[in-house]
Specification:
- This protein has ten helices and nine strands.
- The strands form two sheets. A six-stranded mixed sheet has the order 5-6-7-3-8-9, sandwiched between helices. Strands 2-1-4 form a three-stranded antiparallel sheet.
- With 251 residues, it is an alpha/beta fold.
- The radius of gyration is 18 Å and the shape is globular.
- 32% of the residues lie in helices and 23% in strands.
- Helix 7 links the parallel strand 6 and strand 7 (188-193).
- Bound molecules: adenosine-5'-diphosphate and magnesium ion (MG).
- Adenosine-5'-diphosphate binds at residues 14-15, 17, 19, 37, 39-45.
């Protein structure tokens, strides 16, 4: 079976900065991987490498067996920064349709298929009723659902979420995770976050990233991985975090 994504010995250098060091990662069908790491640890860069937006200086990336540029349309992506200009007149429906641009083509314009895909995606995230609402008039959680709908309109096999919880207050995170669990029945999901408590309860597998990726393909990471990633003692990091992040260890 072809892996959804395969990264082999990936290195990324920006001017003077090494962002990723020899990262290896296999994403299987139905995986739901949470990747945690400090700010500047390379999380956004890793997602961009999978999308073909950042070219690694070394290493090989495959998305469903092909180079990222050939298969990026099989990936749904919700980027980290998403500030909507309040004066820019765009409603929910248009934001979601924009996800079909590559399919529709700038010249041909949107067709029936595009409208159908947009309506289905909005229905899926429970936002169809608000399709005429201006995007800036939504709560953080609602905006996030709309952006997920936009990522879904191309029927992706892999969904990449960059810090998806940062605009979602904790009271509605549960509903958001329920949505992700449903989507995960049809696609692999990777979410990255600097917030250790944001990912660990719901995801199936956990990894740590700080230039190097610490990943064992399981739901657990070790105290050593956490210390290497955050470069501070585990007692500090694990405070308040769900216990399953750490394997049981003798006192
Ligand atoms: P994270 O998402 O974990 O916060 P990033 O992937 O955004 O980390 O950044 C990793 C490192 O690469 C940081 O040191 C950041 O400053 C640097 N970096 C990211 N993007 C660029 C860029 N376009 N040009 C130069 N340096 C960058
Ligand atoms: Mg980032």
């Amino acid at each position: 079976m072809t892996a959804v994504a395969k990264l082999k010995d990936i290195w990324v250098h920006y001017e003077g900065v090494t962002a990723l060091e020899s990262v290896n990662l296999n994403v299987e069908e139905k995986d739901f991987i949470g990747i945690i790491g400090p700010n500047g640890g390379g999380k956004s860069t890793l997602l961009k490498v999978m999308l073909g937006l950042v070219e690694p200086s070394k290493g090989k990336v495959e998305i469903l067996g092909l180079p990222p540029k050939k298969n990026a349309h099989k990936i749904g992506y919700v980027a980290q920064y998403r500030n909507f200009d309040r004066n820019f007149p765009i409603n929910v429906w248009d934001v979601v349709l924009m996800g079909r641009l590559r399919h529709a083509g700038l010249l041909r314009g949107y067709g029936k298929e595009d409208f159908k895909a947009a309506a289905e995606a909005l229905e899926r995230v429970d936002m169809l009723d608000l399709k005429n609402r201006h995007i800036s008039e939504l709560s953080g959680g609602q905006q996030q659902r709309v952006l997920i709908a936009r990522a879904l309109v191309t029927q992706p096999k892999l969904l990449l979420l960059d810090e998806p919880m940062s605009n979602v207050d904790s009271a509605i995170q549960k509903g958001f995770y329920d949505l992700l669990a449903e989507l995960n029945e049809q696609m692999a999901i990777i979410m990255v976050s600097h917030d250790i408590s944001a990912v660990s309860l719901y995801v199936k597998k956990v990894a740590c990233l700080n230039k190097k990726l610490y990943y064992h393909g399981t739901g657990q990471i070790t105290a050593e991985d956490l210390e290497a990633t955050y470069q501070c003692p585990v007692e500090l990091i694990a405070h308040g975090a769900p216990h399953r992040v750490l394997r049981e260890h003798p006192r």
